[in-house]
């Protein structure tokens, strides 16, 4: 009886799954076009799965093994089952591997089951709770049904009751695994996930065999010359089709939720829920079918959307609340953790763009900051002619006077901030001690555009960027060094699309290089415990985790690492203009970060970012002082003799200092 | 002159816009007070909004007008997405052209203007001269238009120290907005770019008075220091927060215009404004 039932079952399921796939693909195709290399993308899937995706999954060893056993066993078992039970091919030979595959899968599903017994809060429940049972039903059913095939049991073993039970078991498993894949069950992640790997909007983020960096963090530019092109994303169908595909690939593992600083602070953002809301919007309906953690303090079931309707509705029921989008610090912790390679930050900024560029509803100080950037080229509205006032006594070479230098020192908007001026002074002391030939743009420098872009104001970003690129193109230098990771990221990764290509180094990288080249000497550090806070825009955005630690080590400091450090570092709360939009939560992100510091027992936190400095220094009752890497280095400098520290181009500087003072 | 004042839906509001100037960098922008005027107009439901600017049509003008147009998101049906640009050479007296455009083609019942421009003469006289030439009443220092009913507008006027006075005025009328009126909404790039500038030609009248003027940058004037003889923090705070109230002054009621003018003249002489 099984011999007749199984083939029917398998082929009906395959046919239904194909129909489901076609309908799902139509949902994705509602998005805007985005050209992809079709065959090359498909061909890249195995590598992207085995190397890149697995690299992320393997951070959780048990889960990674579980997934390999279950998924690997399933793929093998499914193919063999179609051959053996569906087409009756080489049953005697292929039956054995089929037996083995389903056994492995069964083993995997036991682990899935174990994890589901007491699932952590980040995991979704609902249909996900039945998944281990379905996996078991499938693997056990196939296992048992294959026993007679390979002759372990006689062909006519058991009664028709047994055969019917077995058929039901297999049917259940096939329904979940084949139909659920394309009709929207938990297994959808496998189908959408594989295609998402193939047609990812950022193919460059995957490693390549030739050793590509596998990092792609710069936001993509809007085409502002085309007046018809939409300014950001208003409705789910304004996303590109492969972004929609990406949302659909979410496996609701909640890793993003677990690392999101805004979620932890009780702000109304949960990256996992956000992605699920996008899926709701793409398919149309309400979020009532969502079974994970909500946005803090926002009940489930009150949001609805449809593919052509606005995501942030100005009245009535909305798919996502605006303050959800404005809570994000763009720290990329979610993207870094997501095993499905979903790009949350891109999506959030896309939606912010619409709110700012079309609706003019940037919250809190956002609008004022944008106005300042437009009118004065800096977010604080300071006189752009006063950029160099802090350095009136430093005799800095101006590019306008010297025309070229080995290093162009990009100062950033920290020039207007008294705290950051100390960092800049320290950095200049270090550069002079190493006799670096450097110059600054002075009043010709503008805000890099980072804040404008994260606030969604692509127009102001591009205006600033283009003018900065024009200024930079007048001068010759080998590289740009900056102590602001935000400027660093924008200059390095986001100016390229607009025609500005530079070698850019963070000051910690540069100091490390100078030290390694023997151009700096440090006395060793003698006081207190030091921990290091990785700035998001230096670490996750640019992969620089080592250089700052190297500098600290050169000073003889043994860094007492926080639990969340390196690629898992917790944001200071100041990125992505979150300090400007200032969406209220239950606690403040910098306070949480200072608690991380407290746990290490350190009395000093080393940082490498003016924004982190400001946020962490703003913590009341702080257990530790905040110091920039440059300050550490400057304090420990061994200067051979004082006359050596005088900059090499004194004559040039005399004229520039006059200009500054006047 | 407009006639259908009975139907509130047919209220037409003209907002006079000037080219603003950022106080720090001098870049062209939407002028803060005029933007408040536009914000006030947008708050009037079912009003048709006519944006008007008279002056030379150059880059600064366009940048500034687009600043106002950027406020029209969600209000395109009111007409706030288009500026009537009465083009005039820079040396022209825009009053005749503006008054002609208002009375002949735009026909508003309510004209909203800022109190003074951020550059140029900045005398704040234009609304008064318009009022004279059109023969419409003018009310200054308005923070809100509460209602328009049967051709009568109920206005809220700002007085010193946060006081407010409710006034009724028969339309058509001109109002100027106070600096404490609702601050203008954000100007967004999309609507600013899409908005239209409809240039209309008007004969220019040369401003002869301007020829005689000599313009130079203002010098920084010394600030008068407040002398605070305080003993407690509370008093110091009060002194810092208080507006100087000038002490004296008198309220004249029921006097003839001549007596009033004489009183003002006397005060100006005392203060050394007139010599
Ligand atoms: S980027 Fe950071 S703040 Fe934004 S959603 Fe992801 S984890 Fe949360
Ligand atoms: S977005 Fe990624 S990390 Fe977050 S729940 Fe979905 S798959 Fe997991």
TrEMBL record, chain A:
Top-level taxon in the UniProt lineage: Bacteria
Gene Ontology MF terms: 4 iron, 4 sulfur cluster binding; metal ion binding; oxidoreductase activity
Ranges in a coiled coil: none
The keyword Oxidoreductase belongs to this UniProt entry's keyword annotation: yes
Q: Spell out the residue ranges making up region: Disordered.
A: 643-662
Keywords for this protein? 4Fe-4S, Iron, Iron-sulfur, Membrane, Metal-binding, Oxidoreductase, Transmembrane, Transmembrane helix
Membrane spanning residue stretches: 6-22, 68-87, 93-112, 133-153, 159-179
- One cellular component GO annotation, for this chain's record? plasma membrane
A Pfam family annotated for this chain is CCG
InterPro entries for the chain: 4Fe4S_Fe-S-bd, 4Fe4S_Fe_S_CS, Csal_0991-like_N, Cys_rich_dom, HdrC_iron-sulfur_subunit, Helical_ferredxn
Domain named 4Fe-4S ferredoxin-type: residues: 241-271, 316-347
Record bears the keyword Iron-sulfur: yes
The name on file for this protein is: Fe-S oxidoreductase
The organism that produces this protein has a lineage beginning with: Bacteria, Pseudomonadati, Pseudomonadota, Gammaproteobacteria, Oceanospirillales
Automatic annotation (TrEMBL), chain B:
Under the heading InterPro entries, the entry gives: ETF_a/b_N, Rossmann-like_a/b/a_fold
Give the superkingdom in one word. Answer: Bacteria
Q: Where are the transmembrane segments?
A: none
The record ties this protein, via Gene3D superfamilies, to: HUPs
Short name of one Pfam family for this protein?
Answer: ETF
What keywords were assigned to this record?
Answer: Electron transport, Transport
Residues covered by the Electron transfer flavoprotein alpha/beta-subunit N-terminal domain? 36-203
Q: What is this protein called?
A: Electron transfer flavoprotein beta subunit
Q: Which organism is it from?
A: Aidingimonas halophila
Q: What is the lineage of its organism?
A: Bacteria, Pseudomonadati, Pseudomonadota, Gammaproteobacteria, Oceanospirillales
């Amino acid at each position: 009886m099984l011999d007749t039932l199984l083939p029917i079952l398998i082929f009906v399921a395959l046919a239904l799954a194909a129909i489901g796939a076609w309908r799902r693909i139509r949902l994705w195709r509602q998005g805007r076009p985005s050209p992809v290399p079709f065959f090359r993308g498909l061909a890249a899937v195995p590598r992207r799965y085995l190397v890149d995706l697995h690299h992320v999954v393997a951070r959780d060893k048990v889960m990674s093994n579980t997934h390999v056993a279950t998924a690997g066993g399933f793929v093998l078992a499914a193919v063999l089952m179609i051959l053996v039970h569906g087409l009756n091919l080489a049953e005697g030979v292929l039956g054995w591997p089929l037996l083995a595959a389903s056994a492995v899968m069964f083993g995997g599903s036991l682990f899935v089951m174990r994890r589901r017994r007491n699932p952590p809060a980040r995991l979704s429940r609902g249909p996900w709770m039945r998944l281990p049972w379905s996996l078991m039903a499938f693997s056990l059913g196939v296992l048992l049904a294959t026993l007679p095939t390979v002759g372990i049991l006689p062909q006519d073993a058991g009664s028709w009751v047994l055969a019917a039970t077995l058929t039901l078991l297999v049917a259940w498993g096939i329904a979940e695994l084949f139909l659920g894949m394309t009709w929207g069950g938990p297994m959808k992640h496998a189908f959408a996930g594989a295609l998402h790997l193939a047609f990812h909007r950022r193919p460059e983020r995957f490693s390549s065999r030739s050793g590509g960096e596998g990092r792609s963090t710069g936001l993509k530019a809007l085409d502002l010359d085309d007046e018809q092109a939409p300014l950001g994303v208003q409705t789910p169908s304004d996303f590109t089709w492969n972004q929609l595909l990406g949302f659909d690939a979410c496996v609701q593992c909640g890793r993003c939720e677990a690392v999101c600083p805004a979620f932890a602070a009780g702000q109304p953002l949960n990256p996992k829920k956000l992605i699920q809301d996008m899926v709701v919007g793409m398919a149309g309906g309400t979020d009532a079918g969502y079974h994970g953690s909500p946005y803090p303090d926002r009940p489930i079931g009150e949001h609805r959307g449809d593919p052509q309707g606005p995501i942030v509705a100005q009245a009535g029921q909305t798919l996502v609340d605006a303050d959800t989008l404005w809570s994000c610090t763009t720290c990329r912790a979610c993207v870094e953790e997501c095993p499905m390679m979903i790009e949350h930050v891109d999506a959030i900024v896309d939606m912010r763009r619409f709110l700012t560029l079309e609706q003019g509803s940037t919250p809190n100080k956002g609008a004022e900051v944008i106005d300042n950037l437009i009118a004065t080229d800096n977010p604080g509205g300071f006189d752009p002619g006063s950029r160099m006032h802090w350095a009136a006594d430093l005799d800095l070479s101006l590019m306008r006077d010297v025309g070229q230098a080995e290093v162009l020192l990009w100062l950033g908007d920290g020039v207007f901030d008294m705290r950051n001026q100390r960092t800049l002074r320290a950095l200049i002391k270090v550069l002079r001690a190493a006799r670096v030939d450097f110059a600054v743009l002075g009043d010709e420098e503008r805000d890099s555009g980072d804040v404008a872009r994260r606030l969604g104001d692509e127009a102001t970003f591009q205006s600033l960027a283009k003018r900065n690129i024009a200024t930079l193109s007048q001068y010759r230098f080998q590289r740009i060094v900056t102590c602001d990771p935000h400027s660093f990221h924008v200059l390095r990764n986001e100016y390229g699309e607009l025609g500005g290509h530079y070698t850019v180094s963070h000051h910690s990288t540069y100091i490390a290089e100078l030290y390694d080249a023997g151009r700096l000497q440090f006395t060793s550090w003698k006081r207190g415990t030091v921990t290091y806070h990785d700035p998001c825009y230096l670490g996750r955005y640019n992969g620089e985790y080592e250089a700052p630690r190297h500098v600290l080590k050169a000073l003889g400091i043994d860094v007492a690492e926080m639990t969340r450090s390196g690629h898992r570092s917790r944001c200071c709360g100041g990125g992505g203009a979150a300090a400007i939009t200032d969406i209220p939560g239950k606690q403040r992100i910098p306070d949480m970060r200072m608690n991380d510091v407290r746990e290490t027992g350190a009395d000093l936190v080393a940082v490498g970012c003016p924004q982190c400095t400001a946020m962490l220094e703003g913590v009341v009752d702080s257990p530790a002082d905040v110091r920039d890497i440059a300050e550490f280095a400057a304090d420990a400098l061994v200067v051979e003799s004082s006359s050596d520290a005088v900059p090499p181009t004194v004559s040039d500087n005399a004229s520039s200092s006059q200009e500054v003072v006047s | 002159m407009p006639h259908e004042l009975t139907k509130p839906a047919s209220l037409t509001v003209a907002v006079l816009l000037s080219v603003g100037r950022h106080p720090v960098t001098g870049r062209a922008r939407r002028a803060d007070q005029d933007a408040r005027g536009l914000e006030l107009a947008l708050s009037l439901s079912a009003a048709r909004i006519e944006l008007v600017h008279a002056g030379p049509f150059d880059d600064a003008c366009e940048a500034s007008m687009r600043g106002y147009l950027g406020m029209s998101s969600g209000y395109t049906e009111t007409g706030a997405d288009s500026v009537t640009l009465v083009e005039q050479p820079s040396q022209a007296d825009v009053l005749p052209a503006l008054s002609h455009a208002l009375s002949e083609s735009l026909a508003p019942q309510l004209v909203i203007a800022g109190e003074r421009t951020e550059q140029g003469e900045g005398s704040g006289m234009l609304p008064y001269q318009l009022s004279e030439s059109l023969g419409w009443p003018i009310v200054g220092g308005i923070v809100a238009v509460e209602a328009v009913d049967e051709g009568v507008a109920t206005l809220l006027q700002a007085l010193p120290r946060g006081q407010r006075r409710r006034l009724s005025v028969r339309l058509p009328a001109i109002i100027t907005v106070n600096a404490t009126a609702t601050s203008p909404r954000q100007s967004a790039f999309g609507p600013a770019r899409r908005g239209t500038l409809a240039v209309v030609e008007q004969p220019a009248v040369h401003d002869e008075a301007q020829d005689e003027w000599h313009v130079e940058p203002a010098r920084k004037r010394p600030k008068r220091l407040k002398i605070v003889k305080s003993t407690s923090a509370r008093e110091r705070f009060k002194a810092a927060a208080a507006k100087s109230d000038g002490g004296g002054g008198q309220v004249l009621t029921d006097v003839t215009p001549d007596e009033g003018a004489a009183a003002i003249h006397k005060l100006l002489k005392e203060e050394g404004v007139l010599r």
